[in-house]
Amino acid sequence: MPVADVVQPRYDGDPQKLARWQPDQSSPSIAVWEITLRCDLGCRHCGSRAGRARNDELTTTEALQLVHQLSDLGVKEVTLIGGEFYLREDWDLIAAEIARRGMFCSIVSGARQMTDERIERAVAAGVGKISLSIDGLERTHDAIRGSRGSWKAAVSAARRIAKSGIDLSVNTQMNRLTMPELPAVADLLVSVGARSWMVILTAAMGRAADRPSLLLQPYHLLYLFPLLAAIKRERLDPHGIAFFPGNNVGYFGPLAETLRYGADRGHVWDGCAAGRSTLGIEADGSIKGCPSLPSSDYVRGNIRERSLRDICSGLARERETPVELWGLCKTCPYAERCRAGCTWTSHVLFGRAGNNPFCHSRALALAQAGRIERLEPAGAAPGTPFDFGCYQIIEEAMPADLESDPVIGLTVASQTFGLAPDTVGVWSQQEISETLGPN
């Protein structure tokens, strides 16, 4: 489960503290740690193609030693992910050591087998937050997650976690299937007692790279961003649920300050945070600046061979070199500050960073000129963890009626007429199967 955007500021219920949150840029403050690649789901979008454990995952002793190195480096929060975290039996020993060393421990889970016993172990270990993955309503979620019954299991786990004393968060992939169901998912958050919601655009990595029909198109952002703003204003804010757009949800459009935390200070996007405020750790001890970045291009060392501090020093030197911009990002008025947004999102589309079509500001500028961008596959992914294929950008005249697009039409309808959170979903099983393709 590579999710660069599980990285959230810790939310303690105080909106003023939330608005003042700012990561320490002197060294990584948040580490996202894949403690195993073993998984009990078969998610159709999974960038790491999780399922089996890696060949040489860290031992318990090595993992605990890494916790000490993270603490010594000054990391403030460690998020444990997988695969599925609880399929590594010593997960609570790692979590407890993180807490004992004074770092905040959070967890991301698909929750297919989140038993009461596992929740109790998380409480005993001092876990402060658990973020569950809920991708749309029941039929959509089960199809995307590759497991019938996974939606009900996640919703049940959410209610039990909310009662346990651990902060409950939810993270949701935004793609062709889930976009029309986002308002109902927001209502579900209220009913289960979630305190925050992280949304992220499904990126063309791993199994998602095999399913180009699952991805949103850049012009969908013209409707997605107003939808997110309305959800935040009408469904989340009245219930005190914090909203966190992922690092590939941006960037300098008119709704950016409404949606992104820190709005009282003005626009807070300041370029890709990989290696600056965030750190990614793979289960075998490999280190990269962000957990979602392709391993082949971005791993910068392994803690079995070099200390974490030494590896991070190299990342610090590397981040001082500006990314080479190209395409429309090169001529954007926000280029110097934005630096083409999320490195992960653009790299898995084109094999290099520096040009990101998933930008609200860019989509609006094109629309004003009567144009849109569309992505077409140009090369398949090889089928390995954290892999990607290749896409090309097609710029063309805007269709006369964009709302004839089924994703946009269903989104407008679901927002206008409402959709109960216990609804099975807006897509038929045939439409879902056509979008996801064969297993």
Descriptive account of the structure:
This protein is of the alpha/beta class. It is about 35% helix and about 15% strand. It contains 16 helices and 12 strands. The strands form 2 sheets. Strands 7-6-5-4-3-2-1-8-9-10 form a 10-stranded mixed sheet. The protein has a two-stranded antiparallel sheet with strand order 11-12. Helix 4 runs parallel beside helix 6 (about 150-165). The chain is globular, with a radius of gyration of 20 Å. Residues about 1-25 have low confidence and may be disordered.
Number of helix segments? Answer: 16
Low-confidence stretches: 1-25
End-to-end separation in angstroms reads: 18 Å
Overall form? globular
Q: How many beta-strand elements?
A: 12
Biggest sheet character: 10 strands, mixed
Spell the H/E element sequence: HEHEHEHEHHEHEHEHEEHEHHHHEEHH
**Order of strands across the biggest sheet?**
7-6-5-4-3-2-1-8-9-10
The overall pLDDT, averaged over residues, is 92
Set out the fold topology.
Blueprint: H1 15-20, E1 30-34, H2 60-73, E2 77-81, H3 91-100, E3 104-109, H4 116-125, E4 129-133, H5 138-145, H6 150-164, E5 167-174, H7 182-192, E6 196-201, H8 221-236, E7 242-245, H9 256-259, E8 278-281, E9 286-288, H10 295-298, E10 301-302, H11 308-319, H12 335-338, H13 343-350, H14 360-368, E11 371-379, E12 390-397, H15 406-417, H16 429-436
Parallel strand pairs: 1-2, 1-8, 2-3, 3-4, 4-5, 5-6, 6-7
Antiparallel strand pairs: 8-9, 9-10, 11-12
